[in-house]
Design goal:
The chain has 87 residues and is an alpha+beta fold. The protein has one domain: hypothetical protein PF0899 fold (2-Layer Sandwich), CATH 3.30.2320. It has two helices and five strands.
Length: 87
Amino acid sequence: MSEYISIGHRITVPSLRDYIITHQLNAGDSLVVSPQDFQELVHEMKSSGETIPDIPFNLLGVNILNDSTDTVPIGKVQIVKNEKPYL
C-alpha cells in the first residue's frame, strides 16, 4: 500500500525543493503529485517566467510526476524510491 505524505503546506516548487533537501531524496527518486497539484506547479513555472521543463520535470535530480491513476490526494505527495538493481 502506498503512503501519501503531506508536506505541511501548499505544494509549490520551493516547498518541493525544501522537502527534497530536508529529506535527502536521491537523484532518480520520484515524487508523484495529484493532477491538480501538477497543473498548479506548471502554472507557477509559466507565470514566473522560467522556461517550462520537459514533462515529467526534474527538480534537484528528483522526478516530479503527474499521478496518472488519480490516487494521490490533493496536497500530498507519494515518494517512489529509485531501486537500484543488485549487481
